[in-house]
Amino acid sequence: MEKISQSRQWATPFMALTAAVLVVVPMSGCAPLLVGAAATTGVVVATDRRTTGSQLDDTTMSTSVFLKINDKYGDKVHVGVASYNGIILLTGEVPDQATSDGAAQIARNEDRVRAVQNELMIGPVSELSSRANDSYITSKVKTRFVDSQFSPTHIKVVTERGIVYLMGIVKKEEGDQAIEIARKTSGVKRVVRIFEYSETP
Question: Is the pTM of this model over 0.85?
Answer without folding.
Answer: no
